[in-house]
Design goal:
mainly alpha, 72% helix, 0% strand, transmembrane, transmembrane helix, LydA holin phage, holin superfamily III, LydA_holin
Length: 107
Amino acid sequence: MDTQSSGGLIGWMQAFFGAGATTIIAAGLGRLVYHSGEVRAGRRPAIGLHLIWEVPTAVVMALVAESLAAYLNLPPQVTTGVVAVLAYLGPRGARDVIERATGKTKT
């Protein structure tokens, strides 16, 4: 599937920015949505040095998501969605999803 002719926002982003930049943007937006939820809940200040830790989290979750998408042989648009969702979940959220899916509980 050609990303330039597939249309849609993700296809446009991949054509304009490239696939790698689109992945990082999706991961960053996923972490931003998570952070805004934490701010609204009053668990975090809106701006601060704690935001520095969101950068490596977004990058690592993007790598994990792209690896998972490649393993599952997903198309580029779906891969970008998986990146955004896993970046939003973060490491703890991803662990919780895996534990629920496998029936294992935390000890």
